[in-house]
C-alpha cells in the first residue's frame, strides 16, 4: 500500500537551461561593466507507475516462542538463593533501623529507591520518614543545602 503511494507522487525532472536574451553589457560606473545573465529553468512532470519492489529480508524464524520461554529454568530460584536474599533483606532492615542521623536515614532511603529495592522495605521506609518529619529538631536541615534538598 505504501509503496504504491510513493510511486504515484509526481517527480520533476530537470531538462536544461535556456538563455532567452543575448548578453548585454551595461556600464554601471566609470570603471566597471556589469553583464546581466538571465537564466530560465525548465522542468517536466514525470509520472511513475512503477511499483517499488522491496527486497525481502528472508529472516529465520525465532526459537523464542512462549513454550520455549516457559520451559527455561533459573538456577537462582533454588532454596540457597532464596535464603541468601532473605538474609540480605534482614541486614538492610537492620541498617535502616540502626542509622541515627536523619540525613543518613534519608540518603539510605534514596539509595534503596535508586537501586529499585525500596518495595522490599516499604513499611520500614514509611516509619523512618514519619520519625524524620515528626522530630522537633530541624537543625540538621539548616546545616547545609544538601540536607535541605534531601529532606524534600
TrEMBL record:
Ranges of residues in domain Terpene synthase N-terminal: 63-148
One of the Pfam families matching this protein, by short name: Terpene_synth
Segments crossing the lipid bilayer: none
BP terms from Gene Ontology: terpenoid biosynthetic process
Protein name stated in the entry: Terpene synthase N-terminal domain-containing protein
MF terms in GO: terpene synthase activity
Keywords: Magnesium
Cofactor(s) the protein requires to work: Mg(2+)
Superkingdom of the organism of origin: Eukaryota
Higher taxonomy: Eukaryota, Viridiplantae, Streptophyta, Embryophyta, Tracheophyta
Amino acid at each position: 500500500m505504501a509503496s504504491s503511494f510513493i510511486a504515484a507522487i509526481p517527480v520533476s525532472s530537470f531538462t536544461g537551461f535556456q538563455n532567452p536574451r543575448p548578453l548585454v553589457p551595461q556600464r554601471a560606473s566609470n570603471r566597471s561593466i556589469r553583464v546581466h545573465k538571465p537564466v530560465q529553468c525548465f522542468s517536466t512532470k514525470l509520472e511513475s507507475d512503477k511499483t517499488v519492489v522491496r527486497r525481502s529480508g528472508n529472516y529465520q524464524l525465532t526459537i523464542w516462542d512462549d513454550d520455549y520461554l516457559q520451559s527455561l529454568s533459573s538456577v537462582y530460584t533454588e532454596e540457597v538463593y532464596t535464603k541468601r536474599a532473605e538474609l540480605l533483606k534482614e541486614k538492610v532492615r537492620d541498617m535502616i533501623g540502626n542509622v541515627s542521623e536523619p540525613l543518613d536515614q534519608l540518603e539510605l532511603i534514596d539509595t534503596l529507591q535508586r537501586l529499585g529495592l525500596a518495595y522490599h522495605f516499604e513499611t520500614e521506609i514509611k516509619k523512618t520518614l514519619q520519625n524524620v518529619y515528626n522530630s522537633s529538631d530541624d537543625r540538621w536541615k539548616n546545616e547545609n543545602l544538601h540536607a535541605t534538598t534531601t529532606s524534600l
